[in-house]
Amino acid sequence: MAIIQQMSLFEWEEIEQLGDLERLLLVLENMPDEPLMQMLEKARGRGKNDYPIRAMWNSVLAGIVFQHESIESLRRELGRNGQLRHLCGFEGQVGDVLGLHSFFKKTAAT
Question: What's the domain of life for this entry (predicted)?
């Protein structure tokens, strides 16, 4: 009987060796989130647009990749890490926790 070896798409060791920003980039490039982004942008309409929907969503994903236990912890990381802010899509400083908290609630409700 012949044994056919299965090829894997990637090795977990390769991903574990990546830095946090590289892992986040991998997630951002491969997340099928365009329908969600369009829905959230449509729901916002002409409402207050202090922070772009996509930047906020990318920061949610960053919180998961970076394993932050709270919104405040994620906000502090975004405040001190310019590369992370840029990768998420924020052009300036990240605002208060209330903006992120509100976004989390709206996203969870959809």
Answer: Bacteria
Select from 64, 81, 67, 103 the least CA-distant residue to 90. Answer: 81
Structural domains counted in the chain? 1
Report if residue 10 sits inside a domain. no
Q: Which of 73, 89, 98 is nearest to 28 (CA)?
A: 89
- For residue range 8-63, list pLDDT tens digits in order: 666 667 667 778 899 999 999 999 999 999 998 888 777 676 778 899 899 999 99
In Å, the largest CA–CA distance within the chain is 66
Torsion on CA atoms 13, 18, 20, 25, rounded to nearest 10: -110
User: Which structural domain range is residue 67 located in?
Assistant: 18-109
Q: Does residue 6 form part of some domain?
A: no
Is 20 within 8 Å of 37 (Cβ atoms)? no
Residue 13 lies in a domain: no
Residue type, 60: V
